[in-house]
Design a protein that fits this description.
Length: 388
């Protein structure tokens, strides 16, 4: 297989973007990624766009073609554009399709983008619930905050996680988000802000939840061999892994362990031929605070049941043993669902280039991502290294 590298990355500010439509967001992120990669539209062979539910959020389907058109790849250039959907893992999976297209030799230079315009719709909770098992979960009233609350209850009962430890995930991610000019929330918060915020689904409160956001992100990939024609700092894709699980949470043997994260993580480490201690930072899918704790355990960074203590001791903050979600994560950077997986790659690129400013992880060489669809029915994981 051809070795693949990321040569450009762009994103919009995430948040309540009343000033921009879905096509505006895509254009902004796509053009910024192309400019960053120093490539022109004529050089692009294919486009993959992650979008979870543009049809229900804004009534727009055929999003691949729309994005290609507005980024300037449709009309005259006739670039093939494909929409990829895997709920909140749509972006990560779009990136994986782009990597596969280059690795197989089928395409030379490919854009992977992700977008969601969520704030225009009245009932985002119901749209999101479509990523769960509609017949057995959503129809019975189990929304995503409700499902992750069940995971949190199970985890707390099994491992004795305290409410204070759980709150520290949000405190840390807001600390990181306050250092990211593209984040939805750029304010630091205290533990008491989390503990006293509105109850959403017990034990999860408002500040345990990722927000409903608008935003887009895009990256450009090509072969590592070609990458140096465009940039002095290509970012090599060491591993691209995907795994699946039951769509419904109640069919899992253990609510507190995301089997697809375990499987995708194992595959990713095997492909990359590295060990956990080699990873300098990780971007994981903290759609709710509990999900971040499960993720770093299920990827194998810390033993099961210990991530709360590890977080409370400051080890997941920049400067700690394993900085987690330096972008601010889904909690503070925001979660425009189709865009999140691409934003994770964008953050890895900033870190590995040494361009992450006030949230830079010193000497970062290897970064990892984990992007989840639903409660873990799809998980996509990638590992990256700064090319020498
Ligand atoms: N964290 C912190 N503050 C938040 C927030 C969050 N997650 N979500 C909203 N807010 C703030 C808003 O900025 C607003 O503040 P303001 O009054 O100072 O302007 C206030 O809370 C009310 O915002 P609103 O949009 O009315 O919130 P809401 O009650 O409609 O929604 C949630 C709050 C938590 C229910 C919603 O964000 C949610 O459903 N999140 C989860 C999304 C999800 O499931 N994603 C998929 C995961 S798999």
């Amino acid at each position: 297989m051809v070795e693949v590298a990321v040569i450009g990355a762009g994103m919009t500010k995430f948040g309540e973007r009343w000033d921009a439509s879905l096509r505006d967001l895509c254009t902004e992120a796509g053009v910024s990624a192309l400019e960053d990669a120093n490539v022109s539209g004529e050089q692009i062979d294919a486009l993959f766009v992650g979008s979870m539910s543009a049809g229900r959020f804004i009534g727009q389907e055929h999003v691949g073609a729309l994005v290609a058109d507005y980024v300037g790849l449709g009309g005259d250039l006739h670039v093939p554009a494909t929409r990829v959907e895997a709920a909140c893992a749509s972006g990560g999976l779009a990136f994986r399709q782009a990597v596969a297209a280059v690795a197989s030799g089928m395409s030379d230079i490919v854009i992977a983008a992700g977008v969601e315009k969520m704030t225009d719709v009245g009932d985002a909770t119901d749209v999101l619930a479509g990523a769960a098992d509609r017949e057995w979960e959503s129809f019975a009233g189990a929304t995503f905050p409700g499902l992750y609350a069940m995971i949190a209850c199970d985890y707390m009962n099994k491992y004795g996680l305290t409410r204070e430890e759980l709150a520290q995930v949000a405190v840390k991610n807001h600390y990181h988000g306050a250092r990211n000019p593209y984040a939805h929330f750029q304010n630091e918060i205290s533990q008491s802000t989390v503990m006293n915020s509105t109850m959403v689904a017990s034990p999860l409160r408002l500040f345990d939840c990722s927000p409903v956001s608008d935003g887009a992100a895009a990256v450009v990939v090509c072969s590592l061999e070609k990458a140096r024609e465009f940039t002095d700092t290509p970012i090599t894709v060491l591993a691209s892994a995907q795994a699946g699980d039951t769509i419904a949470l109640h069919d899992r043997p253990d609510f507190s362990t995301m089997g697809a994260t375990v499987a995708a993580g194992r595959k990713a480490f095997a492909q990359a031929k590295i060990e956990h201690k080699d990873v300098d930072f990780v971007e994981v899918h903290d759609c709710f605070t509990i999900a971040e704790l499960c993720a770093i355990e299920d990827l194998g960074f810390v033993p099961k049941g210990t991530a709360g203590k590890f977080t409370a001791e400051g080890e997941t903050q920049i400067g700690g043993k394993l900085p987690v979600n330096t972008s601010g994560g889904l909690k503070a950077c925001g979660h425009p669902v189709g865009a999140t997986g691409i934003k994770q790659v964008w953050e890895v690129v900033q870190q590995l280039r040494g361009e992450a400013g006030r949230r830079q992880v010193d000497g970062a060489e290897i970064g990892m991502t984990q992007n989840v669809g639903g409660t873990g029915a799809t998980v996509v994981s990638h590992i990256f290294r700064r090319a020498c």
